[in-house]
What we know:
This protein is α+β, with helices and mostly antiparallel strands. The chain folds into 2 domains: about 5-145, Fructose-1,6-Bisphosphatase, subunit A, domain 1 (Fructose-1,6-Bisphosphatase, Chain A, domain 1); about 155-265, D-Maltodextrin-Binding Protein, domain 2 (3-Layer(aba) Sandwich). It contains 8 helices and 14 strands. It has helices at about 5-25, 45-60, 95-100, 165-170, 175-180, 195-200, 215-225, 255-265, and strands at about 35-40, 40-45, 65-70, 85-90, 105-110, 115-125, 130-135, 140, 145, 155-160, 185-190, 205-215, 230-235, 245-250. The chain has a 7-stranded mixed beta sheet, with helices on both faces. A hairpin with a 2-residue loop joins strand 8 (about 140) and strand 9 (about 145). Helix 1 packs antiparallel against helix 2 (about 45-60) and helix 6 runs parallel beside helix 7. The longest helix has 22 residues, at about 5-25. The protein is globular, with a radius of gyration of 18 Å. Bound molecules: D-MYO-inositol-1-phosphate and calcium ion (2 copies). One calcium ion (CA) binds near residues 71, 89 and 92.
Amino acid sequence: MQPFQTDTIKELALQCATTAGQLSLERMKQPYLVEYKTSASDLVTAVDKEVERQIVQTILDRYPDHGILGEEGTFEGDLSTCDTVWVIDPIDGTTNFVHQQINFSVSIAVYHKGQPLIGVVYDPSRDELFHAAKGEGAYLNERRLQLDRQVKLEEALLCTSVFWNKRAEQMGIDLIVKKLAGKVRGMRLLGSAALEMSYVAAGRLDGYVSLSLNPWDFGAGKILVEEAGGVVTKMNGLPLPMDQKSSVMACNPTFYEELRNYLMIEEGLSTETES
Length: 275
Ligand code: IPD
Ligand code: CA
Ligand code: CA
């Protein structure tokens, strides 16, 4: 078993993300198959599957003992036997992709023995590469990202998708967030959680809140935000898991406690049963 080589593995993650993003952008110009997963608002395309297969093959050619948790389920091995697990979303923002919108991204996180060590998010439409390694900082292309600006909640630009979540409605969180919208500078919804979390790391958004995301949506974004100096937890304040659905709060540290208190989510109530 090789020791974890952060630089070499990060280099491969960067290569996978940029190649995959450029392939998506190419494929977007031609016809491709679009299927419903569970409904008309839950889509998968032939491009999602092709891109994931390509990433998985590239990783396994180099590291046959690594495991991969990808949204499209291309990896067939047993994750429980793997020390190093890549958590990937080949296209985060498939609905935007299908509607020929620009806000979609490739998201790749690498965990070693359960610890998140590398995060890469690539936005091919703008050629922006967000990347971070544990203890080594977060970057947008070559530029170091550092959340050193003090931001009051009333000055914050927040991002969320809870208004459209049935469980949020059952729990009344949609109304809490609606009330919150009146207290902050503005709310945005871009449709790619990985990109939205990258924007929090870059200070373009001050916070991101979701009641329910999959591990491939938030894995890379979590490392990016933390390495930029931000805070990322479940809505109940607990750490995010590696391989399960979770609620997510990612924000500038100045107002993390205030925002969490505002949302008033009880432990165990956050996401464990999802709509
Ligand atoms: C979706 C996006 C979206 C978030 C959804 C995700 P997908 O991922 O990240 O922003 O609100 O919960 O499922 O399906 O486009 O990979
Ligand atoms: Ca996703
Ligand atoms: Ca996806």
